[in-house]
From TrEMBL:
<keyword id="KW-0934">Plastid</keyword>
<dbReference type="InterPro" id="IPR002634">
    <property type="entry name" value="BolA"/>
</dbReference>
<dbReference type="GO" id="GO:0016226">
    <property type="term" value="P:iron-sulfur cluster assembly"/>
</dbReference>
<keyword id="KW-0809">Transit peptide</keyword>
<keyword id="KW-0150">Chloroplast</keyword>
<protein>
    <recommendedName>
        <fullName>BolA protein</fullName>
    </recommendedName>
</protein>
<dbReference type="Pfam" id="PF01722">
    <property type="entry name" value="BolA"/>
</dbReference>
<dbReference type="InterPro" id="IPR036065">
    <property type="entry name" value="BolA-like_sf"/>
</dbReference>
<comment type="similarity">
    <text>Belongs to the BolA/IbaG family.</text>
</comment>
<dbReference type="GO" id="GO:0009507">
    <property type="term" value="C:chloroplast"/>
</dbReference>
Length: 141
């Protein structure tokens, strides 16, 4: 049974499939690992095509259900600073977000929520963000 199924698969998948019943137990882990890798590669490919501001907007809007979200790239104001290498773009942003998810949260907790959502960006070149985080009630919306 395994042998027939094995030879019907494309060569790339054959490396992952068991050749015998004894190998079957480890095949699931190998297939799951490849699926995770492919998933990560496809999401990175999509992310790489979007600007940093667009990726940030996507993450903040979906997680915080923001009623207003302004993201301003102010990197040009920091050109030449020691932390900005090779005239890098999209390193400094002002963010203004209004979200019902901030209701009952301290200012520190609101900022932490934003920072947590942008961890990937902060680890890949985003140097600084200025955050204004309000509830709809506080903003008068």
């Amino acid at each position: 049974m395994f042998h027939d199924f094995f030879h019907c698969q494309p060569p790339s998948l054959r490396l992952l499939l068991p050749r015998s019943g004894r190998e079957y137990a480890g095949a699931g882990k190998r297939i799951a690992a490849v699926r995770r890798t492919v998933s990560m590669m496809s999401s990175r490919g999509t992310s790489a095509m979007l600007s940093r501001a667009a990726r940030m907007r996507q993450k903040l809007q979906s997680a915080l259900e923001a009623s207003a979200l302004d993201i301003e790239d102010v990197s040009y104001q920091h050109a030449g600073h020691a932390a900005v290498k090779d005239n890098a773009n999209e390193t400094h942003f002002n963010i203004r977000v209004i979200s019902p998810k901030f209701e009952g949260q301290s200012l520190v907790k609101r900022h932490r929520m934003v920072y947590d959502l942008l961890t990937d960006e902060l680890n890949s070149g985003l140097h600084a963000i200025s955050i204004v985080a309000k509830t709809p009630k506080e903003s008068g919306s």
